[in-house]
Amino acid sequence: MTIVMKAVSKAVLAAGVVAIALTSAVEASPQGTLNYGTVIQLNNWNPLVKPNQTYTGIVYEGLVKAAPDGFTLQPSLATQWKLSTDKLELTLRPGVVFHDGTPFNAEAVKKNIEWIKTSGTQWAVGFAPVSSIEIKDDTHLVFHLSEPSPTLLQRLASRGAFMVSPAAIEKKNWATASGTGPWTYDAAASQLGTKEVFRLFDRYWNKDNVGVESIVVHVLQDPSVALNALISGYVQVTELDPSQFPAATAQGLKTTGTPVLVQHILFLDRRNTFADENVRKAICSAIDMDAVVKAGYNGQATAVPQKMRKGLPGYNPELKGYKHDVDAAKKYMAAAGNPKISFTLPMFANNHTAVLLLAQQMKQIGIDAKPQLMTTGQYFSFYQTDKYPMQVNSSSTEDIGPLDYYQFRFGPKGTGNPYRVDVPELDALAKKALQAEGEDAQNKGWQAVMKYIQDHALDCGFHEVFTSWAYDPKKITGVPTTVLRASTLRYDEVKLIK
Prior knowledge:
The chain has 498 residues and is of the alpha+beta class. It is 28% helix and 21% strand. It has helices spanning 10-21, 56-59, 106-117, 152-156, 166-171, 223-232, 245-250, 277-286, 289-296, 326-335, 352-363, 376-381, 402-409, 424-435, 439-455, and strands at 3-4, 33-38, 64-66, 73-75, 78-83, 87-92, 130-137, 140-145, 183-185, 195-200, 214-219, 237-239, 254-267, 301-303, 341-347, 367-373, 390-393, 459-471.
């Protein structure tokens, strides 16, 4: 099967027409300063270890990017591509430079992909099929593949494939950033962890289509402080706890939300704590995800029956998830011998209420999950490691597609499989799906993979979580976002009102 670049969709073109219609109401591009509030703190500029694109999406770019729908691919640093079962051919945008003056070219791409492959991060496995990179000239190169990699382009559109200056990769100095993005990081004007300042890059290749001249990201972790900052005009847009929405709308502010991840219960330690399938099924039956998402996320989440969203390969309409049934859960525990299970369950500000509710529900069947509140930084320092047998979260790597989900969560080298638990039957199903001829056969293969995961309770408790924002409609036209891209704006599309 060969995939070639398609023309930009009618929806994207229509969005462009709307943007043109708004030019009389917004400032000429690029002008003005966007003041943005977030709960996320910056600690370094290595894009491979960031939990989202809040900061990295300002300074870095990928070879391709996802459209607002999260699926359609658009040109970025690459202008054309052709993917087949054994290679990916790329044509690069000429005349692009990194912030440090290093040329962006085929050599830079090769350096980045090789760095990602050997990084040991969650992104490494996804690029393992790239066996070699052949450089034709500065703007043409070929990724040769050791096996089919049908979601390789989607991986290139993820934050794990942002292009970094080769000079920065060599120095391994992540105190500053050097990408090709619209803005550069102004370290002198910033206060690390509190306020981060970005200036327009005067050599940016697409400067005429950038909305604002500068960005200041303010860390506002208290929802009340964030709301007051918006009301006072200190920021024009901020991430906001949904519980603050009524107060925001009462002030004439607008609120919005975008689904950013399909999260779930992570049975990380399936080697010991959750080795018994009956224990996992007991937990999956004991939890009431409808109640959890309603109370735990203030309505900014939706319980869903499976990991793959409708429209993605592997989505299986027959899968309904586990029904909330405490009696059935107790029977599963009895079948497991009613083991005494106790463990620490980490949580942070964004999910602490949901985790507390899940812990209470597990207690009904004799499982002692001890919630431990952490800062966001602490939580993600231990995320997907073997320090905790269970967590409640997800990774955007898993949302790329069924192959990436399988490799990340259950593959022998997957970062989301820190206890290195083998599932031979699942490996065989994934191999069969990957080697199937034709899209229909491949899709049926991935549907079988998803069914095995449900039938054996390898994952459950799926819920689509939203990032929520409030903004001042008198100062900003809206909040352009991308579905299933965690905690980020499409910064270059932001328009300020005069």
